[in-house]
Each structure stands twice: as C-alpha cells, then as structure tokens.
Amino acid sequence: MLQCIFLLSDSGEVMLEKQLTGHRVDRSICDWFWEHAISQGDSFKLLPVVASPTHYLFQIVREGITFLACTQVEMPPLMGIEFLCRVADVLSDYLGGLNEDLIKDNFVIVYQLLDEMIDNGFPLTTEPNILREMIAPPNIVSKVLSVVTGNSSNMSNTLPGATASCVPWRTTDLKHSNNEVYVDLVEEMDAIINRDGVLVKCEIFGEVQVNSHLSGLPDLTLSFANPSILNDVSFHPCVRFRPWESHQILSFVPPDGQFKLMSYRVKKLKSTPIYVKPQLTSDAGTCRLNVLVGIRNDPGKTIDSIAVQFQLPPCILSADLTSNHGTVNILANKTCSWSIGRIPKDKAPSMTGTLVLETGLERLNVFPTFQVDFRIMGVALSGLQIDKLDLKNLPTRPYKGFRALTRAGEYEVRSQF
Amino acid sequence: MIRGLALRSLCSLRVANLVEYLVGPLGLGLKDSNSYVRMVAAIGVLKLYHISVSTCVDADFPAMLKHLMLHDPDAQVVANCLSALQEIWSLEASSSEEASRDRETLLSKPVIYYLLNRMKEFSEWAQCLVLELVVKYVPSESSEIFDIMNLLEDRLQHANGAVVLATIKLFLQLTLSMTDVHQQVYERIKAPLLTLVSSGSPEQSYAVLSHLHLLVMRAPMLFSSDYKHFYCQYNEPFYVKKLKLEMLTAVANESNTYEIVTELCEYAANVDIPIARESIRAVGKIALQQYDVNAIVDRLLQFLEMEKDYVTAETLVLVKDLLRKYPQWSHDCIAVVGNISTKNIQEPKAKAALIWMLGEYSQDMHDAPYILESLIDNWDDEHSAEVRLHLLTAVLKCFFKRPPETQKALGAALAAGLVDFHQYNVSVAERVVNPPKQAVSVFADTQNSEIKDRIFDEFNTLSVVYQKGQNLQITLFQLRGLEANDKDLLLGTSEKEESRGPINNGSEYSAPMYDGSSVSMAASQTQAELTISNPTLPAHASSLAIDDLLGLGLPVASTPVPSPPPLKLNAKAGLDPGTFQQKWRQLPIASSQEYSLSPQGVVALTAPQALLRHMQGHSIHCIASGGKSPNFKFFFFAQKAEESSTFLVECIINTSSSKSQIKIKADDQSTSQAFSDLFQSALSKFGMP
C-alpha cells in the first residue's frame, strides 16, 4: 500500500506531491532522498528500493524525472516498482513525452490520472485505453475549447463501459472506418563474445507487438509456424491460456491501439549476423587499435545502422582513430563511437588508429568492451515465424499486416591483445 | 462518473467535523447501480474508518462491505472491498473479537475458492491482493494444493511482474512440505523469472534478480545449467553486477567451473575497479569449494602478472588463503609470488598476505630474508598494525628456518617492535607470538543461512530487495519498538541485579566484573557480538559462575591498623552489596588513575585473596573480586572513621604489564584525592615484607 507519490525534477525539486492515505507523509523525505542520492554519486546507481529512517522508498528515474513512492508497511516490491513504471508510461503517453515543463503545464491532468490510477494506496485502473476514455488527453482543440467555454474539466461525463465488462481492456462499442491490424515481431539480440572470438552467450528477447484498429468485439487467433523454439513466454492479460497450452495458439480479444501481446525468450542461438574483431597491440607507451567489422551470416536482408561504441580506458591520454567507412567520434567522456551504417559490398569496414597511454605505462592493462548496434528489418533472427492470423466476429474483412525487426540489445565484444 | 468523483473527493477530505455528512452518501454509494461508484465507496469506507472509527462501525459499513465482497458482480468492487476489509479488520482485531473472527472467515475455504474462481476477472493489481491472501490460507489436503496450482499456473505467464512473483510465492509456500513437488516448482518458476529479468526496466529486473538471488542461494544446483544468465553486461549498474557475481559463485559446480572462472577472469580485466575486485574474490571462493583448483590457481597467478595494483592486491590475499587450504600448490605459487616487488603493493591486507607467505615459505624462497629485511628498514612507514604483526611473525619464522641470514633482521624487527610495543595491549602482543592459525574452510556461515531461511518466508516482500530480515527494517512501529527495547534492557539489568541480590548477600561478588570476563571468554569465540548484544546472557553466565566465585569467599577477620592521620578510615566498615551497587551507579567518578605495581606486588598477587587481606590491613574492604592471572578485578570500599561517608573503588590489575587501573567514587568529593593517595600507598606496599 503506497502512501504518497512524489515527482522530483532533475534538480531535486518536488514538482508534484500526491498524498494517498490518511497518514500524511512529510515532504522532508524528499530532501532526505535527494541528499542520499547525491551522496551516492551517480543517482543511476541508487537501488530501486531504499529504506529511509521512516519510510521505504521506491524510485524509478525516467528522462531525468524521479518517481518516488513511499510506504511504511511491507508490500510486494514489484507492485510498487511496476506501478511507478506504469505511471511513467501513462504520463509520457498522455503528455507526449516526459519533462519538467510538460508536467508543470499539465498538472490537472497528471492529478486526475493519478486519482484514477491509485486510490488510497491501491492501484486501480492502469490500462491506458480505459484511462483515455475517462480522461481526455490534452490536445490543442481541448485547450482552445476550455479557454473559450470556460469549462476546464476534461473528465468525460460517462463512464467507460469496459470497467463493467468482462474484457476490461477493451471498450464495448468501437467503430473504425477502415479495419486494420498489424502484428510486429520485434527482437533484441543479447550476445557476449569473449576475447578469443568465441560466442559465450547469445540470446534473443522478443516481443509480439500488435496494433489493432478493429470495430466491435473481434476474436483473434494467431499461430506460429515453429512455436517449439520459444523458451519462455509471457502474455498480455487478454490472451487465453488454454489454447496456448494445448496447441500453442494465441487466442485473444485485442485492446484497441498499440499493445504488447506477448514477450518471449529464445536462448542458445549459435550464430550472430555480423562479426566485430578488435585487435590491440601495445608498444612503448602507445597502443595500436584495429577493429574489423563484417557480415558473418547473411540474414538475407540488409543490416542497417551498424555502430560500434566503446569506452576508452582512463589511462589513455589521447586517441587518433580513423576509419575507411563511416564516421568516428570521440566524445568528451572518452566514449568513442564509430557509426558505420550499412556494410558496403566492395570492402570490409575497419577502424584503425593509435592510442597514447599515460606516461609511465608500457602497455594497456585494461581492455575495452565494444558494444555493437545494428538493425535488420524484415527478419526475426530467432527464426520465429507467424503462420496465420484468423479474425472472427468482424463485420468487414480487415487489412492484416506483418512485420519483423531484429536489433542488437546488449551485444558485446571483448577485446584482447 | 460524477457521483463517483464527488464521493471520492468528499471522502478524501480528512476533516472530522464532516463525518456526519459522509455516512449518508457512503451508504447510498455502496448500493449505487453503477459499479464505479460502488468501487469508490468501498475505499471511501476505509477512509472514513481512518477519520473516525466509531462512526464507521456504528453505521455497520464493514458488514455491508462483506456482503458486497461476496456478491457484487464487478470484480474491481470486490477487490476494493477486500482490501478495505482486510485493513479494517486487522486494525480492529486487537480490540474486538468479532473482527478477528471475521478475519478468520476471510481465510476460509469458501471465500478463498470464490475469489480464486473469479481470479481472471480481477485487474492485475487485485490479483496480487488476492494471491497475497491465498498465501495465508492453509489447504487441508494435497489435492487442494494441486487444484490451486493448476488454476493459477497461467498466472506465471502474466505480463505484470508483481502477479508473477505473487504466484511464485504462493506456489513455494504451498509446496514447502512436499519436497519433490517443491523441486518441480523450482523448475517451473525458473523460466518465468529469467524472462522477467530480461524484460522490463532496470529497476524491475533488479527486483526480480534479487528474488532470483534468494532462490539461487537456496537451491544452487537447480540453476547450475543457467549460469550464463548471470553473466554481467558491460553497462549494468554496480549493484546488479554484484548480485550476479554472487550468484555465479553459488552456482559453480564441477561441470561449469571452467566457464564461470573464465568469465570471471574477463571481469578482472574490466574497466570497473570494484567489480574487478569482486570477481577476483569470487574466483577465490570458487577455488575454496575445491572444484578444478589446478586451473584456478593458474588463473590467479596470471592475475599477478597483470601488473595492476588492485588486481595484484586482491589476488595476493586469495593466494594466501588458497595456500593455507592447499599447501601442495605452494611451489607454483611461490615462484610467481617471489617475483612481485613489494613496492607495488600499498594495501595493508595484501602486504600482510605477502609477508605471511614470505615467512611461511622462506625455505623455498631464495631471497625471502632480504626482502623482509628491507621491509623492516621501512618499519616506521608502516602504519597498519596488521602488517607490522605479520612482519614480526614472518621474521621469526624465517629465523627458525634460516638463522644465519635472518639474525640481523630479527634483531632489527624486535627492536622496532619493542619501540611501539606500548601501542598494543597484551592480547595483541600475544597474537604476535602465537598467531591464530584459523583454518580457511568453505565460507559456510550458519547465521547467514538462518537469515536466508527467514527471508525466504518473506519472499515477495521488500526485504528481499535489500537482503535483510524483516525485523531489521524500519516499520511504522519502530519508535514504539525502540522504547520497548529500552525498557527490556532496563528490565534486564534490574532483573539481573535482583537475581543477584539474594545470592550476593554475604558473599563478596559483583556482576560487572564477571561480565567483563564472560565477554573476554566469548571474544575468543566468533560470536562475541552476539553474546555482548544479548543482555540476558551475561547475567545467566554470572549466576552460573557464582558457585565458582563463592570458593573465593573472603575471610571476615579484620585486623585494625592505625590509619594514616589525614584521613581516617573506619576499620570495621560495613556495606551490603546492594547499597554498593546503588552507590556505584549514582556517584560520578571522582578520580581515575593508572599506577604501576611494584614487582614484589606482582609476584605476590597469585590469587585475589592475598591483596584483599593486605588492603583490609589498611581498612579498605573488598566487596567483590575475581579474575585469573594475569587479569584481576576488585571492588573495594572504605568508610571514613567519623562519618558515614564512603569511598568506592574499582581496581583492575594486570600482572603481566604490572599496571593497575583505579576508578574511585566518593560520597564526599572533597576527600577523594586524599583517599586516592591513601589507596595508592596501600597498594604500593603490597608484596613488601
């Protein structure tokens, strides 16, 4: 049971305070928190749950804004964290971003949203679809209207029907002129390649994202050609469990708009689409760096926005790096990024250069880790394929669209001499 | 909508005067045709309860809520009623029997089943609430357990982490008594947990990870095939990496040690210094678990060649520990260790480790005596006591093995050591000569595992996230708890005194003295802290020890001797132990001094009685004494001859350093200095013929 929610700006100022229960939580807790955060140095390093002398604090940071929730009683930790994440998501969805000014401009809406999302410390409605019907998102028309008519309320007078229906994520009577549904497979590849060039760990975390604009109360069935490769799955509440268990079929009544139908994990993949080969050789206070990038297993589609990024070790005084393709940037915090884009057909991109070491150091003794980024449109590297999508309970034939996308998640290459 | 909003705003006004206007709308709200209003009203009742308990109960709202909870068609209303009722009843339970009975019915089979059957209708948050409730429910037979688990299995695949964790907690609790099913549950929950870790924001994955940590610590075998999930990513925050390192250490077994150690070695070369240190320590821990030591030792020796001071420092400490456990590796290690220049090592721990190795294996290391000698030359730059102690022992060891080369160094070391001998007390000195050779074993800490077990009951609570027992944390009642604790402490001491009172009558014994010795006894054990922190324990020990001390019972005879003129003491003074204690507590310390004893006195003080008789000769009476050579402790008292003004003395004598510490308290502060002189002169005459 949460007792109070604070929103702090990036300078530690309390922007918003929402007391939820009879026990008032004093604002000074924020000062305590902020001092604590500063004394810890990087606020990023602060734990998500902190015990202050009087309260437990949950904190998440989104784009410089700290969401802070206080409680004095024992409660499931994820309930607090998960709820704050939802609040952040809903707010950024409503306000079209998250920053200090946006929140200050839309105080009323933020308070209304919090009112609906949590009552007396118990989370209530957090489905964005339903919230949208109760509280109209801010837009220019409504702002003009409220100025002209003097009616400042943007609460709708009628209740969303879904709160009473058995599919709480969907309103009962939706009408779209053109019915369409899009299914996206979005995958992220996490890989670690060790200093000998061996693939230590390679895993794909994927999501099935659905964007549906369908009238009425449609019933959808999605099946995969090869569901057996999935290691573990988790579903949106709308997915019925039984058909999945018996036939690995996703049967659901979709919410309206964009949502995450399912997330899955595929592990023990054997290969990666590209290779990155860093080589470092040290000699008498300087270090030669050579990084080669190329395609290892052609996925059949073009590999886009390839980038290699690494942190120069602190013992390096200066670096001079050039590449035969793409651009190399060295930022002030000693982060070096090399954006390649696409790999050209005729040559293999490489970055070479010298690093000057601190005086007194003969050779480099810390090895940077290279983080690789890429995108592949049109293919899901895990090999997961959508077999078909059936729609029932619809007046007209809708348009169905499928897409796939793979991008690098935590893709790391470790270096050596 | 408007009705609901109005009601919510009304209930949120925390003004006691408005209560009477609240009852009517709330009653109507609970019967409203729209579920949104009912939902708001249910929470409104809880708010009303916080403002005014009596109004809420008088209007019979709890009963209405209960009815709503069991019959309302809308799941959210049910959930809100449930949460409101839970809170009202748990607050009410202490005062009214009916409420606690109601609370029991909440856990009855029909209610639980009713809620479970509607599970899918609830919102995700309400599901958490219901799951929490079901955890408290004790199924009567195992078929029920399987029913519940079958019903809830799909919850494990919910997108909301809170629901998943609540379900896992329920499953684990349900199957605690059935070992084989419990194992299956572990298998089943493994995948959802790992998925949760990789999905979601860093905050969420950290919270899940700490739960996973708990499970890994409990059942490392089950996760040994999933060790790759605990590999650290480059840009994860420090706390996540640390957690992962601990898990990697825990899951290591014969089959995966090689991979894990390889991975850990990668971290040692990492940019992040704290993590590099942690990972080296983790390597050491795995090595101590006896898997594949050969490879690990090789790795460690490679670390030494990396020429990074923090890596070298950590590794040295580890190599020392490993050598204690596996002496057979000494030759390999010594060869490498010998090449390390002592100048590069700054950290005291690492330095001490290196010196220890130099001493222990000086016969194999060609130039050990010379290294030690150069270290001794820099004795004054060495500020850490630990390093100095190790240096002394190492030189000594070296001397026994290779006398001719070390003789000079030993002389220098002893001289240097003597110079700052005064800095150390005797126990430290004793440790120098007789270093404790604690065996390095697997770091199995019973107390720790106890805490783990307790935390396990608190799965899915906040405590998991920062790994402390619930009782170590702050709660609403912390203040009250602290007061109670204080009271306990006070009670504890007064009881202690009371219990001592009757036995003490006539016998000269006072507890504080024995407290001291029991602590020192305990200090030799590892659980010293436990003993000290527990106020009842010393009391217990003291009552046990009384029998012993009675043996030291004191002679009653007193030979009055003419007291020195300025201060006359009553030779036949009497004071019962109770008064003594009372006075000792009340009076401020008048003077506190340190004297050295005459050598003869030290010789004579083989048993406490000798001194007592001597002091009695000076009209200073002893009320309690105790201790064993070389430490004695006495409580003396004396009375002025003419008046009833008394002096109280606590005297601690250490025969090995021939020092005595004296604390004097007096009724009449003005004469305390005179008494102090008197006491000192009496003490100094002790042992003289």
Automatic annotation (TrEMBL), chain A:
Keyword Transport: yes
Gene3D superfamilies: 3.30.450.60, Mu homology domain, subdomain B (2.60.40.1170)
Keywords: Membrane, Protein transport, Transport
The MHD domain, residue ranges: 178-414
CDD domains noted in UniProt: AP-3_Mu3_Cterm, AP3_Mu_N
Compartment(s): Endomembrane system
Cellular compartments per GO CC: clathrin adaptor complex; endomembrane system
SUPFAM superfamilies (UniProt xref): Second domain of Mu2 adaptin subunit (ap50) of ap2 adaptor, SNARE-like
Keyword rRNA-binding tagged: no
A Pfam family recorded for this sequence: Adap_comp_sub
BP GO annotations: intracellular protein transport; vesicle-mediated transport
Top-level lineage group: Eukaryota
Homology family: Belongs to the adaptor complexes medium subunit family.
PANTHER family: AP COMPLEX SUBUNIT MU
The name this protein goes by in its record: MHD domain-containing protein
From TrEMBL, chain B:
Gene3D superfamilies xrefs: Leucine-rich Repeat Variant, TATA-Binding Protein
The name this protein goes by in its record: Beta-adaptin-like protein
Keywords: Membrane, Protein transport, Transport
Role: Subunit of clathrin-associated adaptor protein complex that plays a role in protein sorting in the late-Golgi/trans-Golgi network (TGN) and/or endosomes. The AP complexes mediate both the recruitment of clathrin to membranes and the recognition of sorting signals within the cytosolic tails of transmembrane cargo molecules.
Entry's localization field: Endomembrane system
Record's subunit section: Adaptor protein complexes are heterotetramers composed of two large adaptins (beta-type subunit and alpha-type or delta-type or epsilon-type or gamma-type subunit), a medium adaptin (mu-type subunit) and a small adaptin (sigma-type subunit).
Spans annotated as Disordered: 492-511
Sequence ranges assigned to domain Beta-adaptin appendage C-terminal subdomain in this UniProt record: 567-684
Family: Belongs to the adaptor complexes large subunit family.
Listed GO MF terms: clathrin binding
Source organism of the structure: Liquidambar formosana
